[in-house]
Specification:
Pfam families: Acetyltransf_1
Strand order of the largest sheet: 1-2-3-4-5
Keywords: Acyltransferase, Transferase
Number of domains: 1
Structural class: alpha+beta
Shape: globular
Order of helices and strands: EHHEEEHEH
Oligomer: single chain
Radius of gyration: 15 Å
Largest sheet: 5 strands, mixed
Protein name: N-acetyltransferase domain-containing protein
Organism: Dyella acidisoli
CATH class: Alpha Beta
Helix content: 25-40%
């Protein structure tokens, strides 16, 4: 199998990242997202790095997956948690180490940046993803997530 590389996303990746987000929302929640809103949302991250960072995994120069990192300040720890979000691996590249490569790269960058930890959320029914996260050394937290859309 050829090697994977991980790099920060560039402007040329915006369309693919937006398309992957549309696919992920449908695959995981059967939710239809507005592609134009997504394009603006992905572009906003690249325009304002304070919002987060996208990373892209490539195999043989072909983009095969991505994820978004956003930040949460922890006053308890006087540091940032890096939240892993919007993870997508192209169907033809799944079970090929793409997420593992993305996660390893982000963990290293977070440590170098002085982050206090990595966090992500996962659907309660997604046992395969939960197993992957445990294998990478993550532990289940004891918080429920609530939201109110505005």
């Amino acid at each position: 199998m050829s090697s994977l590389t991980v790099r920060p996303a560039q402007r040329g990746d915006i369309a693919a990242i937006a398309e992957w987000n549309v696919a992920m929302a449908w695959e995981t929640e059967q939710k239809r997202l507005d592609p134009q809103v997504l394009l603006r949302g992905v572009t906003a991250v690249l325009d304002e790095p304070r919002r987060g960072l996208y990373f892209v995994a490539e195999r043989d120069g072909q983009a095969v997956g991505c994820l978004l990192v956003t930040y949460e300040w922890s006053d308890w720890r006087n540091g940032d948690f890096w939240w892993i979000q919007s993870v997508y691996v192209a169907p033809e590249a799944r079970r090929g180490g793409v997420f593992r490569a993305l996660y390893g790269d982000v963990a290293q960058r977070a440590k170098q940046a002085g982050a206090v930890g990595l966090r992500l959320y996962v659907e309660t029914e997604n046992a395969r993803a939960q197993q992957t996260y445990r294998e990478l050394g993550m532990e289940q937290c004891y918080y429920f997530m609530y939201e109110q859309m505005l």
